[in-house]
Amino acid sequence: MWKPELLVPAKNLERLKVAIAYGADAVYLGGQKYGLRARADNFTDSELALGVAFAHQQEAKVYITLNAFLHDADFEGLADYCQFLSAIGVDGVIVSDLGVIRTIKNSSNLNIHLSTQASCLNSYAGRLWKQIGVKRLIVGRELSIAEAGAIREHSGIDVEMFTHGAMCMAYSGHCTISNFTAGRDSNRGGCIQSCRLPYHLESDDQKQDDLVTFMSSRDLWGIYQIGDFFKHQICSLKIEGRMKSSFYVALTCKVYRRLIDAYAEGNLTEEILQIAAAELQSVPHRDYFSGSLEMPAGRDSVFGQLSGINTGTHQYLGLVLESTPEEIVVQLVEPLAIGDDIEIIPFEGEAIGWKVERLLSVTGDRINSMRQDSVVRIPKIDAPVNLQNVTKLNVVRFAPAVKIPQTIPLPPLPRGVRM
Q1: What pTM does this model have?
Q2: What is the spatial distance between Cα 339 and Cα 100, in angstroms, rounded to a whole number?
Q3: How confident is the model over 179-196, as pLDDT tens digits?
C-alpha cells in the first residue's frame, strides 16, 4: 500500500543519523546560509556531503532549507552553493523566495519544494508554482488536510504538510516581532520566539496586572488524522523541530513511523493511538492540539500557561555511542548515578529499562556517578532483560519516579481517525 513520506528535522549530523535510525524516510536540514534557523548548529559543506552520503546509504532522502527571504546582497554565492548541493546529490531544496527559485533553476537541476513561508493556500497558486518549476508544495499551516488534498488533486503537484511540532501564531510564519524586539529578522533566520514571552496588557481605562500569553500557540499533533493523510494522498508528513534534541527526534519519529505503518497494514487501533499519545507526552512540549488539520484553529489554540513548556513525563539522559556484548557506552546530557532507573528506546518495540547497579569511566574505573556532558560505560550484566537489540544511536532516558501507564485516557476520537 502507498505510504506518505515521514520527514524529520535534523539539527546536525547526530540528529540526522538518529532520525534515519528511528524510521525517517527523509530529513530536512540547513547549511550555513540561506535558511530560517540561524541559531541551529547547521551543516558545514563537508558535513552536508557526509550527511547526504549516510542518508542515501540508508535509502533516505535529504532536503536542504534555502527558505529565507533574501536581500540583493544575500545572493552572492547562492548559484555556486546550489551547484555544490546538486553535486553531492541533495534530493531537494525548500524555497520561499521567487528570486532564489530563479537562481536555482539557472544554476542547477535541484528539485524545488515550496516552503510553507510562501503561503500556498489554493489550487490556482499551486498550478502557477508548478508552471514555474516547483515539484512539491509545503502548504500553509492554515489549511485542513481536505483542502490540501484538493490542491494536490486540482493542481497535479505533490503536497507536504506539517503534522507535528511547534506552531507560529503569525500567518504562515510571517512574523516581525523579533525584528523590533531584538533587531533580528525572523524571515531571514533570526527569530528569537518573542511571541512565547508573557506580557502585561493595558487598556485606556485600566491596567491589566496579570501576565498573559496571547501570541503563543499550542503544539500540533496529527496522530488522530493519519487516515485522512492517506485518504487525501498527502505525499509527506513533516515533523517540526530543527532546534530540538535527539530525544524529541527519536520519539516523534518512532511514533509516527508506527502509526503510518500500522494504518498501511490495516491494523491501526485505539490501543496503538493511546500508546502513541503517551509517548508524545514524554518529550517536552506545549499542550497538543490538531491545529487546522480538520477545521480552522480557534481560541483554544492559544497556549496560555505562564509556566512555559511542559517538561514531559520523562527526562532525556543521553545517546548510545557503542554497544558490545558486555556494556553500553553512553554520551550523557544529564548526570547519572548508581541507583538511577533508566530506559533505552529501541528503534522498534517497547522501552528497555533497568536500575543502574554499576558504572565505569571510559578507562574502566568503578565510579558512583558521572557528570553531564561526559561519556560513561554501563555494564549489561546488571540488566534484568536481554539487551541484544540495543545499538548505537539508541536514545536513553530516565524512567519517571512514578510509573507512567502505557496508555492514557483520550478524548473521543476526532473525525479524522480511520480505524
Answers
A1: 0.88
A2: 55
A3: 766 777 666 666 767 666
